[in-house]
Amino acid sequence: MTLRLPRQMVDEMVAHALDDLPYECCGVIAGKASVATKLYRARNAEASPYRYNIHPQDLLRISQEIDERDWEVMVIYHSHVASEAYPSATDIRLAQWPGTSPPSDLFPGAWYVLVSLKDRDAPVVRAFQISAGEVTEEEIETH
Q: What is the pTM of this model?
């Protein structure tokens, strides 16, 4: 299934990754019926160039707004500051969204988007579905 995102959101993820150097950035994109509506920057509670964890205060704030607007978490994104835009073993092990909600054709569960800054002059953005330890790359279509 193709992830459709406004070009502005892809650019914002890259900007966030660059702004948060030397640490990994992280955030969420929310929407409804596979239409991306809002990007939320979050703080990396790990403050690490090797790991990310959305700060609990940010996660609470973001979750409350998403619930109030009856949106879904569409994308969980983070950056890799010096490696490829591919989920690490830790990323795969910790990938738990959508939790107990089964994916559907309309909403397959959250995409995991990675921004690689390995080449800072040409950042790479890739999307994945991660389920039960299996990683599947998905196309990103911008508009």
A: 0.91
